[in-house]
Specification:
Layout lengths: L8 H7 L3 H7 L15 H7 L4 H16 L2
């Protein structure tokens, strides 16, 4: 299953723990946040002030990290 912007942050982190580092590297510290179990990646990233283009770039990075496994 590929990661997409509609995936819940907590689901992404649970399925693919290696994605936590990528989110951290972009200043997104959702691992311990209560909203991670309710918010989509798109919503969470945009709430941190990222543009649609930046969101798409990060989603690509997340997918690249799971393709490497």
């Amino acid at each position: 299953m590929k990661i997409n912007k509609d995936m819940i942050i907590g689901e992404c982190l649970s399925r693919y723990p290696q994605t936590a580092k990528i989110l951290f590297d972009h200043g997104i510290h959702c691992v311990g946040c209560f909203a991670a179990n309710m918010e989509t990646l798109e919503d969470g990233l945009q709430r941190h002030g990222l543009s649609e283009e930046e969101v798409n770039k990060i989603i690509k990075e997340l997918n690249d990290s799971i393709d490497e496994k």
